[in-house]
Amino acid sequence: FGKGNFAAVDALIADSFVDHSPPPNISGDKAGMKQIVKLFRSAFPDLRVTVEDMIAEGDKVAVRIVTRGTHKGELMGIAPTGRSVTFNEQHIVRFANGKMTEHWGVEDNLGMMQQLGVVQAP
Asked: Which tens digits make up the pLDDT trace of 23-51?
């Protein structure tokens, strides 16, 4: 994500990959993951992802990350605002044979939308 390296998707994600929590209107497969990377790199060209915590056990890895960027491109129909955002994410990824095979994720999309000015804080 941080570098927008689409080739890494092919190298790191299994063909049978399943994303159990894809964004709306994006498939939960390997092609969908490429679409997600492209979507966020286009919307936030300066996207930065910082891993705050990483825990591995068995075939799963859990991470807590902070994502930062400046909204300079369209994001799911939202015109660029020029605003900077910082939001938290938590992800669990299952691996087999050195490749990602499953993903479950929770992102603070409400906080991101509030920072973009699309949703008003209560």
From this structure: 999 999 999 999 998 999 999 999 999 99
Phi, psi of 71 (to 5 degrees): -75, 95
In angstroms, rounded to a whole number, what is the distance separating the alpha carbons of residues 26 and 67?
20
Q: How far apart are CA 12 and CA 25, in angstroms?
A: 23
User: Encoding tokens for residue 121?
Assistant: 């804080």
Nearest of 78, 75, 5 to residue 44 by alpha carbon = 75
Q: Give, in order, the Cα–Cα distances in Å from 109 to each of 13, 35, 97.
A: 24, 17, 32
The answer to pTM > 0.70 is yes
CA R_g for the chain: 15
